[in-house]
Design goal:
Layout: H1 5-21, H2 25-49, H3 55-76
Helix pairs in contact: 1-2
């Protein structure tokens, strides 16, 4: 399941708040890293939601299509 950009941005903001305000330095560092990761995921989600398809998404679609064609051929009694 892919996460929506809005959720990613919410999580990024939450982690940025922790990175700025947590009393423990180690937790601030972890929160800063988490905020960065959520931000990167948000960028990818925004691209997906805008209709931009990544190379991996294209490859996944091609593989799925190939499996569907194979399954259809099997139903008809054909094999490669």
């Amino acid at each position: 399941m892919r996460v929506k950009a809005s959720i990613c941005r919410e999580q990024e903001a939450c982690q940025l708040d922790l990175a700025a305000n947590d009393p423990l330095e180690s937790r601030r560092k972890v929160a800063a890293a988490a905020a960065k990761a959520w931000g990167l995921e948000a960028i990818q989600a925004e691209k997906r939601e805008a209709g931009q398809v990544s190379l991996v998404d294209k490859m996944d679609a091609e593989i799925t299509h190939e499996f569907a064609e194979d399954a259809e051929a099997e139903k008809r009694g054909y094999t490669h």
